[in-house]
């Protein structure tokens, strides 16, 4: 079964073609600058990299060009994809699982733009495009928020008037659900224990970061909230704030809602604190000579440390801590900063193992560490492909 996984942005389209017989990625890449000048498509097809300069007026032109390339290279003659899986950021209060896309499902995805105005509209556009390109091929929406629907009400409820929360759907939804589930499952495999008998803290740390407590295979708490703004500081997002900060800034700087949103989402986080970059690698490189860069890094590390401690308490213990995503997989400095302050949980970091980069999951704690710590590369695309296969295999 061939599954095409799509992740549509406002001016981009990421793609992965997965052969589910071996769960092998045959091709992946991205079309960028859609609707703009100097557009291009980059890809890796069976290990070979390529690039095509192409101005793309819309996502349909981009997807058509991607499929032309796949048909010329990796797709057998006359073969087409069997299903398309779409990453959708926000599933709102009603989607606690992936869904085969119907007109009603697509409409609700569009209506949920209220919660995710930067993410859901492009996803809906990508779905409509794929429906045009692949008429009759089943399409599946996989929601970032779905895995977190298992949270208990006391973990997702905000301290606002209850009626207002019910009216507007205000609650903690969480994000990166496909990543958290995939990495937690792989952690259980690494431990040699059943997934539904583990307490795992997953630290998905990238340009957007979230931390999740996974108890017996279910998300019971997560750091992101109604939107991807809540939690630890991120590349350009603020993370947790005193709500009074928001009213103060709006009044003193005379910002409207759009201006405040831009400040919190695009000008804050590592970039806002350091003044150097939103890229953690560049922040770490500058730490030796730039006090603000060091401060930005430590604010992030300290935020991760506090969530780990909180979630160990929330689950009444923890069987493993795992780091994943761009920063989590690659920043040995961040992992060391956090782990060196978790000795009370029995963590003993293997300094040499922590420095080794690997494409497969590995422990970075010592064999006698009472609490195992691991680094596991995430694979959200494979999880989306698995969901598409699960819902369409008998279609």
UniProtKB/TrEMBL annotation:
Keywords: ATP-binding, Cytoplasm, Kinase, Magnesium, Metal-binding, Nucleotide-binding, Transferase. It catalyses: acetate + ATP = acetyl phosphate + ADP. One of its GO terms (cellular component) is cytoplasm. CDD domains: ASKHA_NBD_AcK_PK. Pathway: Metabolic intermediate biosynthesis; acetyl-CoA biosynthesis; acetyl-CoA from acetate: step 1/2. Its main location: cytoplasm. Mg(2+). Can also accept Mn(2+). The active site is at 144 (proton donor/acceptor). GO terms for molecular function: acetate kinase activity; ATP binding; magnesium ion binding. InterPro entries: Ac/propionate_kinase, Aliphatic_acid_kin_short-chain, Aliphatic_acid_kinase_CS, ATPase_NBD. It holds the Pfam family Acetate_kinase. The keyword Transport does not apply. The record marks 176, 237 as: Transition state stabilizer. ATP binds at residues 14, 204-208, 279-281, 326-330. It is found in: Cytoplasm. Its EC number is 2.7.2.1. Substrate binds at residue 87. One of its GO terms (biological process) is acetate metabolic process. SUPFAM superfamilies: Actin-like ATPase domain (SSF53067). HAMAP family: Acetate_kinase. Belongs to the acetokinase family. Homodimer. This is Acetate kinase. It comes from Mesoterricola sediminis.
